[in-house]
Predict the 3D structure of the following.
Amino acid sequence: MALLLREEDVRALLPIADAIEALEWAFRAQAEGQATNVPRARVRWPRGALHVMAAGGPGVGYVGLKAYTTVGGQARFVVLLFDVESGALVALIEADMLGRLRTGAATGLATRYLARPDARRVGIYGAGRQAATQLMAVCAIRDIAEARVYSPTRERREAFARRMAETLGIPVHAVDRPEAVAEEADILITITSAREPVLRGAWLRPGVHINAAGSNAWIRRELDEEAIVRADLIVIDSRDQGKGEAGDLLEPLERGRLQWERIHELKDVVAGRVQRTHPDQITLFKSLGIALEDVAVAALVYERARARGVGEPVRLAEVPLMD
């Protein structure tokens, strides 16, 4: 019997720090050949799109998929989770909050391995629905003393700054110039829907770590070409998925200023095969959001829900493959 888990269940069962640990476990399993990720596929029609992505394997204990629609400015998300041993559907999970937490957790995981250990100041571009978990995840990984946020809308960036200062217990300043975000930052986050760059390479300090998490389509770019070229170490969560989605990287690749051989996968960073080698290196994590991340955090949510008696049981018929 499967469990139906609602948004409020996910919120209660999945602290951001635990989501980071779940992703680390999953990427380590992938590095060992015990987990597989399938890039996102899209079905489009004039008013919207259906997006489907799948992952899992023995190293995670589960396989699953996330499916979501984007229609009329609204998105609706669900994760289906199956036991890897029995093949049984064990959970149906409303996945808006789950997606925000896993995206923040990917940023947190990359920051753990790529940011300097003494990183103390964060700058974030974007104050929308995904931004809070980004900042929360970085603060779970480093001892952050201060954050700055820029969004084109003054009211949104100021409201975000007030809310996050109260949540995190650190000063969070709303700034009115995008370059002011990067001036003293040790860690930068872009989490926008921008089609033109919001972060420019000319603003980057030596040793900064960048998490570019907003763009997952070829028509979107948060970083200019100079920011990409200045990065000494570039990491992505999935090269295969990036070849169709990493808008930040595709133009420098097409122009010959970047090669795929220079772009490493997060699994290899977690496995210790790739690492920062100098304090002054500029490091970049290009986050697309992949199904392995969804399955990893969904598995943790399901196991905690089952242990605590949370969720609504749903009975589904099982059909034999052959009579």
Notes: The longest helix spans residues 96-114. The CA atoms of residues 91 and 302 lie 7 Å apart. The mean pLDDT is 96.
